[in-house]
Amino acid sequence: MAMIETQDVKKSYPSGEGLMEILHGVSLSIPAGHCAFIVGPSGSGKSTLLHLIGAMDQPTSGRVIIDGADLTTMSEAQKDIFRRDKIGIIFQAFNLVGNLTAIENVLVPFLPRGITPELRDRATEMLKKVGLGHRLTHRPNKMSGGEQQRVAIARALVKHPQVVLADEPTGQLDSHTGEEIFRILRNLQHESGTTLVVVTHDRRFIQPGDLVLEIEDGLLKH
Amino acid sequence: MWRFAWRNILNRPTRTFLALVGLSIPILGVVGLFSLSKGLRMLVGNTLSQVQGVIVLRNNSPSPAFSDIPADLPDQVRGVPGVKIVSPELWGIAPPIENTNLIARTLSSLGDQQKRMQSLLDTPLIAGQEPVTHGKITTSVYRKALLKPDENGGRYLDERDIGKNHVVISKKYANQFKNPDGTPKKPGDKLKIGKETFDVIGVYHTNSMILDGVLVMNLDTARRVLNRPNGLSDVYVEMTDPSKSAEVSAAIEAKFPDFDARSMSEFQTAFGDLMGQLDRILALTVSLALAVGVVGIVNTMLMSTLERMSEFGVLRTNGWSSAHVMRLVTLESAYLGVLAGILGCFLAMVGTTIANRFLTGGIQLVVTPWLILLGLGLSFVTGTLGGLYPAWKASHMAPMEAIRLGHR
Predict the structure, then answer these.
(1) Taking the complete model, does pTM exceed 0.80, yes or no?
(2) Domains of chain A, CATH where assigned
(3) Among B127, B79, B122, B114, which Cα is nearest to B98's?
(4) Domain limits of chain B?
(5) A13 to chain B: nearest residue by CA?
(6) CB-based burial of residue A63 (10 Å sphere; 0-12 exposed, 13-18 middle, 19+ buried)?
(7) Optimal mutation site among A47, A57, A80, A163, interface B, most CBs of chain B within 10 A
(8) Which residues of B touch A93 (CB under 8 A)?
(9) Residue of B nearest to A86 (CA)
């Protein structure tokens, strides 16, 4: 069964006096538990597609269906809950909250509802899994880029999401650190059975068995 | 979330400090101005509560010093049912005392804050009384306020003082117009009023700035000093039944329509109305200042939210709802409000304490717990309201739109 499905998804942005269409009708299907790579040149619409899958943006037309739920018919409140419970997101720029320590950044999804000791233990465990057991109380500005991205991975996975979306997760890291990040990401994906979707233009990390979706000029190449 | 919001406030100390100063000054104004209003109420309340009879004076006269009544009015008032004692009085602004008038006192006190405040607030009045008639009054303010003999209180006016330059002065004036050797005036000492020299026979202390500004003397002597031959300002009336003062006042006014018979409760009501109007003007002034404070908070929070759009987008992508982001930003501005309230109230308390050291004569700035609560409450509400628009702006944006905007 498909965990992620898009049907003729189009997305336009205002540009000057008119609209610029980034995605021209993308239809795809990603089975549950798989690792999928969306690849393509810069400006091809990879990240835009990822954001639509994560309910972080609204398609101009078409449907986005995750685990049987149509995101395009959801209210804003339903999308909030969807992102909170089912989606983990990793950005190229890490996007940690500067005021918070590593463990607090991992716990960000739970902050509005209150942090329980159980959640704190879970976050600590997750940081240990990404090799940051000794950096729990450090703030982002005291950590390297690789460490910050590991915190972001822990934050994405701590809520046991059904789908983890990674937008150029190694884009700001050196080659060695990038490999390390992918190793961690794959281990955790394998362990949790979550569906992983990675946007990248770097094909080095693609392994046999991965689903590769190539986008060019806003269209999926077959 | 509370701690997160708190850290966000502390994370930008300069901006937070400036916002605090911007809002705490109006709060300081609220507490300071209303403490003055409260002080005035207490001063006048303290004064009026000491005068228990009814005063009959000409219509629309703000005080006995600006009233004149015909010489036969006291006898006519005596005929009103319920009236027990009628004591005629003459009030007027005193001529220079010890050759020092208000302007001279003010000029001579330049550079001395305490003396300057005293001289501006002091305008000595002369009260002329008939010693024999007045002696029958049981509620005489100044006789009751006479200092004890061991405090050099002396005695009050009686028939021995008729036709003589004898005066009863307040402790305040005893200290203000000292003897050549620097000691305060006491019974037996001389005091020059206008061109005449008086013997001080008594010293009183009512602890009211208004009442303590009076020199009490025999009625005929007062007429001469004030140059008002046969002049009368009012009659002080004591009732057979003090609880019937309202009925007796009404009867007097019915019989003599050109005159007001004012009980102290009427004075208090009139003063209360006046202070109510003053409070409304103060509230209006303070509202304008608070509006400026709100603009400051809106500006601070807008800057803060615009800088952190990316952060809000990240929070939204991690499952925070619009309401959660709105709550976070509103919480931050509410913190600013509370902190500004604490700072403003603290500054007001320090300021009023210092000001009270320089204010003499009974008027004091009074900061009550309710005033502090008002200051804190206003500040909290102002801070919270000021954060609502920035909070709305921060929360009602699609997550990726916010992140993109933040990264520009």
Answers:
(1) no
(2) 31-57+74-221 (3.40.50.300)
(3) B122
(4) 2-44+271-407, 60-257
(5) B401
(6) middle
(7) A80
(8) 407
(9) B319
